[in-house]
Predict the 3D structure of the following.
Amino acid sequence: MGNAISHHSLGNMYIRGQYVEKDLKKAFVYYEKSADLGNAIAHYDVGCAYFKGIGIKQNFKKTFELSLLS
């Protein structure tokens, strides 16, 4: 479980390397946790990650599905 905003903030920190070592895979994990908790902005960020292949294999179908949720 957890807090959607906290998970999203951790994702931002990992994607930027802010206060932690930059880790795109960890950023994706935290964005996905936040999205699972209902954060619409995180749905967008997960969709962007799938679109660009950031921390996860590129997947345009998932990008489209997530864009409908954000």
